[in-house]
UniProtKB/TrEMBL annotation:
<dbReference type="Pfam" id="PF08443">
    <property type="entry name" value="RimK"/>
</dbReference>
<dbReference type="Pfam" id="PF18921">
    <property type="entry name" value="Cyanophycin_syn"/>
</dbReference>
<feature type="domain" description="ATP-grasp">
    <location>
        <begin position="224"/>
        <end position="478"/>
    </location>
</feature>
<dbReference type="Pfam" id="PF02875">
    <property type="entry name" value="Mur_ligase_C"/>
</dbReference>
<dbReference type="GO" id="GO:0071160">
    <property type="term" value="F:cyanophycin synthetase activity (L-aspartate-adding)"/>
</dbReference>
<dbReference type="GO" id="GO:0046872">
    <property type="term" value="F:metal ion binding"/>
</dbReference>
<comment type="similarity">
    <text>In the C-terminal section; belongs to the MurCDEF family.</text>
</comment>
<dbReference type="InterPro" id="IPR013221">
    <property type="entry name" value="Mur_ligase_cen"/>
</dbReference>
<dbReference type="InterPro" id="IPR011810">
    <property type="entry name" value="Cya_phycin_syn"/>
</dbReference>
<dbReference type="GO" id="GO:0071161">
    <property type="term" value="F:cyanophycin synthetase activity (L-arginine-adding)"/>
</dbReference>
<dbReference type="InterPro" id="IPR036615">
    <property type="entry name" value="Mur_ligase_C_dom_sf"/>
</dbReference>
<dbReference type="InterPro" id="IPR011761">
    <property type="entry name" value="ATP-grasp"/>
</dbReference>
<keyword id="KW-0436">Ligase</keyword>
<keyword id="KW-0547">Nucleotide-binding</keyword>
<comment type="function">
    <text>Catalyzes the ATP-dependent polymerization of arginine and aspartate to multi-L-arginyl-poly-L-aspartic acid (cyanophycin; a water-insoluble reserve polymer).</text>
</comment>
<protein>
    <recommendedName>
        <fullName>Cyanophycin synthetase</fullName>
        <ecNumber>6.3.2.29</ecNumber>
        <ecNumber>6.3.2.30</ecNumber>
    </recommendedName>
</protein>
<dbReference type="Pfam" id="PF08245">
    <property type="entry name" value="Mur_ligase_M"/>
</dbReference>
Length: 901
């Protein structure tokens, strides 16, 4: 077997709208292409021996063991690779269950789709599954050591990519509330929400967290001074910078026992408590100097360690932190008890699990000695043997929830202290013998105030009730169910995507909001270009959604991005599907128009239930998408007699209709006429039907988002098919005695669309400079030739500079074949070089003629036209000839309703 390609999907996709995290592996079975599993000697036995847990896979039989039944009866190896990849992730602790396997149009080549939790682990699992199956085919077995290594590697990938328990808790809460999130590129930042409504977090610090509060909390001595001045109970202590000052500091705090800790430390590093001798004090000083230049010496207060979590001025959780310890059983040594304790699956390395494995340091041995033990001692049954003096979870400690036990005075004190320090999220370390009594009564003290406190002890305490502290954070960041989203309008289709996206963005600008939009020629925010290029995939969408100034996102969504990575967002407010026609077939394993329609339907399906799928009622493949989406439906049509739209309106639906020369919005028993088509520059005086359809789609998408008719009208009347606003989309130039039209038509549907305008050119000759991308099928080029023969009086056939793997001249020959099939006496010539072909078309143009250029490089074509010196771009219908007369100006606004009903 051979892996040809592995792709990672991160959003709604061709395979699943709901399951966003998928690996797609293109797998060539090679010699196994026609060999089912039951014909491979020993394969079933070897697979069961390697992965007996596959017994839990149901598969199509729908029962436990169903998959293994399929293997025994005979199934293809690609299907088996899918299940093995999922099971390897399960064995590594990642719960995944979705998979698909489909053979492509090329026999023996399969697409294997598997769910993942961690991207690197998912890709690794796919490769490991192929190795495992190949090994069983070749040797009848997969060595146990290799399987164990695979599982360990998968665990390592997951651990290395872990965001930490606090961030994970916040993300889970965000997902539960439908708040989108994404990691940012620097400093472990997480973005919650989109655009102008976004919030950012780093661990448990938010973009509301005061830098002054963080700086103060990180300076433990300054924190203690400011709290002491406010009357809060804090330990007596001082800061020293030299060992020579240690003895005097001990005297200042009142003598032993003392605590020595670094001024700038965290996670309990470098802290030694309950110091009772000078030798211990010296050793503690040296340990603290490994962490910080300045050292705090404090009086040691007897009591239990508590963490009080305050969010947005309110105490939301309290936990007693118990230092790392083991409990004797009367048989095992302390060393054996530690080893047994660390086997707990809840214990992991660092912060990657609920608890942390116990590791010993110098203070551990001192503490053991003070208790009269060594590692080889056998504590009596039930005896607690402490292994760490500090109670941090990061050093192996555990937590007991005490939220319901804190005394009201202590609660008030904690909330007051956090406000004094100036933090939105803070963790107070309090030492007291009894948290249910006021600190002043039991000589309790506030030891520290921590910025960016960990949530682990609260969301998963060892004992007690887990607290939804992340919920309190979400309530603070998005109070009163404040929206975390911005309107997202996604536009797809075979043709017209860029024009419709730009027009829709322009219409939305009439509302005064900052619009971010992506197109095949660039990413824009407001009136400014952010990045040039074909930006119609998820990465470009993220540029818009991550920008804190954007209030509305209008995203052109092309097939390639959906196939490669999925959508760049979880759901849109409006999904527009313009049309589906033969284009790019045979690329990316999309072989038929039906498959292409299924791919583009992702945009219609990935819409919020209260949003709208805006669908072309005149395209039956697009109209059928209404059955797939849970969103509301809005149709647009060029046919005022559309039966589908008539029934839709009778049921209370909304539609955009071209009727009697007007673009109109129809709903129920009323009609809003937006504007006459001839007054909308984009429609070329009403001569470009496909542009009218694009305008209908954009108008309807804006309308269902509560953009007013007046704002829509203003947008339509001020948007032009110009080089500046729609480069390569019906750009018309006046060259004095003749005109030139540049359009990036490159497939049959777009040829037909351009043709609908060209046929309305009633003066002079119609000259076409035509071609198509080299990666299309032979039959596609023949079709382009046939269409060109029906549109143009004279044809110049050229080829793209990039032939995309085709032999130079072969595409042109196929186009000529199509031309001659329709019109054997057609006038044509072949000039393969695009520049020469364009110049020839412009040089030969008679008076009043129209030269239509369908280029590979729009920029080059426009430059060649402008070099003529006389070129004047025309954008208003009056410059394209006589407008189509409308003899029915007096039609009442309700007339279209009568037609439709």
């Amino acid at each position: 077997m051979r892996i040809l390609k592995i792709q990672t999907l991160r959003g709604p996709n061709y395979w699943s709208i709901r399951r966003h995290k998928l690996i797609v592996m293109r797998l060539d079975l090679e010699t196994l292409a026609e060999t089912p599993s039951n014909e491979i000697p020993g394969f079933y036995e070897g697979l069961v021996e390697a992965l007996p847990s596959l017994e839990g896979h149901y598969c199509s039989p729908g029962c436990r063991g169903g998959f293994l039944m399929r293997v025994k009866e005979g199934t293809m190896i690609g299907h088996i690779v899918e299940h093995v990849a999922l099971e390897l992730q399960e064995l590594a602790g990642m719960h995944v269950g979705f998979g698909r396997t489909r053979e492509t149009a090329t026999p023996g080549i399969y697409q294997v789709v598997i769910e993942y939790q961690n991207e690197e682990a998912g890709r690794y699992a796919g490769r490991a599954a192929v190795r495992l199956c190949q090994s069983i085919v070749d040797r009848g077995r997969y060595p146990k050591a290799e399987l164990e290594q695979d599982i360990q590697d998968l665990k390592d990938f997951t651990r290395d990519a872990s965001l930490g328990p606090s961030t994970e808790a916040i993300i889970k809460e965000a997902e539960k509330r439908g708040i989108p999130w994404m990691p940012l590129e620097a400093r472990f930042l997480i973005q919650l929400g989109y655009g102008v409504n976004q919030k950012r977090m780093q661990a448990t610090m938010t973009d509301n967290t005061s830098i002054l509060g963080v700086e103060l909390a990180c300076d433990k001595e300054a924190t203690k001074r400011i709290l002491a001045a406010a009357g809060a109970p804090v330990p007596r202590g001082t800061v020293i910078n030299f060992l020579d000052d240690l003895e005097q500091a001990i005297e200042y705090v009142g003598g032993y026992p003392i605590v020595v800790k670094p001024l700038d430390g965290n996670h309990g590093r470098g802290i030694t408590i309950d110091i009772r001798t000078w030798e211990e004090a010296e050793a503690a000083y040296e340990a603290a100097r490994q962490v910080s230049r300045s050292i705090i010496v404090e009086r040691y207060y007897v009591g239990r360690d508590h963490r009080v979590l305050v969010v947005n001025g309110k105490v939301v959780a309290v936990a007693e932190r118990v230092p790392a310890h083991v409990i004797g059983n009367g048989r095992s040594t302390i060393s054996e008890l530690i080893e047994e304790t660390n086997l707990d699956p809840n214990r992991g390395e660092g912060h990657d699990n609920v608890l942390t494995k116990i590791e010993l340091d110098r203070t551990s041995y001192q503490l053991l000695e003070r208790q009269g033990y060594t590692l080889n001692s056998v504590p009596p049954k039930g005896t607690i043997c402490y292994l760490r003096a500090t109670a941090n979870l990061s050093t192996g400690g555990s937590a007991v929830d005490r939220t319901d036990e804190i005394h009201p005075e202590n609660l008030w004190l904690a909330q007051r202290v956090v406000k004094i320090i100036g933090l939105d999220i803070a963790g107070l370390d309090i030492v007291t013998t009894d948290i249910s009594r006021p600190l002043r009564e039991v000589d309790g003290v506030i030891v520290e105030v921590n910025a960016a406190p960990g949530f682990r002890m609260h969301v998963a305490p060892s004992v007690g009730i887990p607290r939804n502290v992340a919920g309190a954070v979400m309530d603070m960041l998005f109070p009163n169910e404040q929206s975390s989203q911005i309107p997202i309008l996604s536009v797809t289709g075979t043709n017209g995507k860029t024009t419709t996206t730009r027009l829709l963005a322009h219409i939305y600008k009439q509302t005064g909001k900052v619009v971010g939009y992506t197109t095949t020629d660039g990413t824009y925010i407001g009136d400014y270009l952010v990045e040039a290029g074909d930006n119609t995939g998820p990465q470009s969408a993220h540029v818009i959604l991550q920008d804190p100034t954007v209030e509305v996102a209008v995203l052109e969504t092309a097939r390639g991005g959906i196939l490669r990575s999925g959508l760049g967002f979880e759901a849109a407010n409006v999904g527009v599907v313009l049309n589906v026609a033969a284009d790019h077939l045979g690329i990316g394993d999309i072989e038929t128009i039906e498959q292409l329609a299924n791919l583009k339907s992702v945009v219609a399906e990935a819409v919020f239930p209260d949003g709208y799928a805006v669908l072309n009622a005149d395209d039956h493949r697009v109209a059928a998408m209404s059955e797939k989406t849970k969103a509301n439906i809005a149709y647009f049509t060029m046919n005022p007699d559309s039966e589908l739209v008539r029934k839709h309106i009778q049921k209370g639906g909304v539609a955009a209709v071209y009727e009697s020369g007007y673009l109109s919005i129809v709903k129920g028993d009323w009609t809003h006429r937006i504007e006459r088509a001839e007054n909308i520059p984009l429609t070329m005086g009403g001569r470009a039907p496909f542009m009218i359809a694009n305008a209908l789609a954009a108008s309807l998408a804006a309308f269902v988002q509560n953009v007013t008719i007046e704002q829509i009208r203003s947008g339509l009347k001020t948007f032009r098919a110009s080089v500046s606003q729609t480069p390569g989309r019906m750009n018309l130039f006046n060259l004095g005695n003749y005109h030139a039209l540049v359009d990036y038509a490159h497939n049959a549907a777009s040829y037909e669309a351009v043709g609908s305008f060209v046929r309305n050119w009633t003066t002079g000759q119609r000259i076409g400079v035509i071609g198509g991308p080299g990666d299309r099928r032979d039959e596609d080029f023949v079709t382009l030739g046939k269409l060109a023969a029906q549109i143009f009086d004279y044809i110049i056939v050229k080829e793209d500079d990039d032939t995309r793997g085709r032999l130079r001249g072969s595409a042109a020959q196929l186009i000529i074949q199509g031309i001659t099939q329709v019109k054997p006496d057609s006038r044509y010539e072949s000039i393969l070089d695009e520049t020469q072909a364009i110049n020839k078309g412009l040089d030969m143009a008679p008076d009043n003629s129209l030269v239509v250029i369908l280029p590979e490089s729009v920029t080059r074509a426009i430059k060649l036209i402008k070099l003529r010196g006389l070129a004047k771009e025309e954008t208003h219908q009056q410059n394209t000839g006589t407008a189509i007369a409308d003899s029915q100006n007096g039609i009442a606004p309700s007339s279209v309703v009568n037609t439709l009903l």
